Amino acid sequence: MLFKKGGVVPDDYGLSLTVFAVEATEENPVTAGTPLKLDNSGEYQVLKCQDGDAIQLVAKHAVQSKDQPLGAYAYSFSRNNEFTYSGDISIGDSIVADGNGGVKRAADVDGNPVDNGTYVALVDAGKSKVEVLLP
Prior knowledge:
This protein is mainly beta. It has strands at 16-21, 35-39, 45-48, 57-59, 70-74, 79-84, 95-97, 103-105, 119-124, 129-134.
C-alpha cells in the first residue's frame, strides 16, 4: 500500500489559535503536545491542565515565557468570530444574540450566567467588540 490509512494530521484538529501561556517560564516551559485550558483572567490566556481538567487546547510548540505567542489546536470550538456586544460582558462568558444584530452575555431569567459552549476570549470595550470561540 502506497499511503497509510488514518493517522493524525494538523487539518484534523480544526481551529487553531494564538494564545499566551501565563505559567510558562524557562524553568517551567510549555512544550509541544501539552494539554491546556482557557484562563478567564486575560485575553487568549491559557493554563496547563491539572489532574481532572477538561482539555480545551493542545500546544503546537514550546514556549518559555508568558509573553511568547503560543500556537494551539482548539478542541470543542470550530470557529472564532468578532461581534458587537451590548451590556456587561467579560472574558469567559458565554454569549447569545441581543436582538439588535450583536451579542450579549448569556444569562437565565434571574441574570445568572449560562454556559452554552461559546467563550468570550477578548473584550474591546472601546469598540464594543468581543472575539468569541464558537462550538
